[in-house]
Amino acid sequence: MNEQLTSTWAILDEAHHALRTVVAGVGDGDWERPTPCAQWNVTQVLQHAAGDQLGFAASITGAGWPAYDPFAPDGHLGGQGPAEFAEATMRASAAAWATIPRDATDAPTPLPQGRMAGWLGAGACALDAAVHAWDIAVATGQPSPLTPPLSRDLLTVARELVEPLRQWGAYAAIVPGEDGDGDVAALLRYLGRNPEWTA
Fold first, then answer.
1. Are the C-beta atoms of 120 and 157 separated by less than 8 Å?
2. Is the CATH number of domain 10-26+33-190 1.20.120?
């Protein structure tokens, strides 16, 4: 595989690493397994996550939108292997975000909120990749790819963005917290996921 492309946004690079690692760890027989996204299997979650990465990239570059609706993934990856499919979209996303200065105050995004500060837009792109990496990991018996530091950073982003998106079904309602919750659990619960989910 070619050398991995970095975006200059550490939060996005870490999220891409999480997704890349989890995709590589999925067994051949696990792509149809159920996920925390109740209506989608593992392949569909990957297709959705990859489409979102292309959407963020295309918002910046003006080209390269996904050829399918990421919110209605059909589980077909265009004849590519899952790792190859995902890698191409992450590379497009990283390359696009590498053009956005770290002090940008008006970066384009595909979100309903539209343009926003660069750190928040890059964080939103990272949030999407990282949480779907977790979905795939728990669906296929892999360790969580979310670290406490990344989860803290992503929760800061999520609190800026997620509430208006719940009305469109992008995120479920907050799952009540429990004693002993750490940073990873706090992020997942805020995003409407049960940290203890199992297939």
1. yes
2. yes
Strand partners, 82: none
**Domain residue spans of the chain:** 10-26+33-190
CA quadruple 153, 139, 180, 145: dihedral, nearest 10: -40
d(CA 196, CA 176): 12
Secondary structure of 76-118 as H, E, C letters = CCCCCCHHHHHHHHHHHHHHHHCCCCCCCCCECCCCCCCCECH
In 3D space, the residue among 168, 159, 165, 161 whose CA is nearest the CA of residue 189 turns out to be: 159
- Going residue by residue through the chain, which has 199 residues, state the pLDDT in tens, using 9 for 90 and above: 344 556 679 999 999 999 999 999 999 999 999 999 989 999 999 999 999 999 999 999 999 999 999 999 999 998 999 999 999 999 999 999 999 999 999 999 999 999 999 999 999 999 999 999 999 999 999 999 999 999 999 999 999 999 888 887 778 889 998 888 999 999 999 999 999 999 8
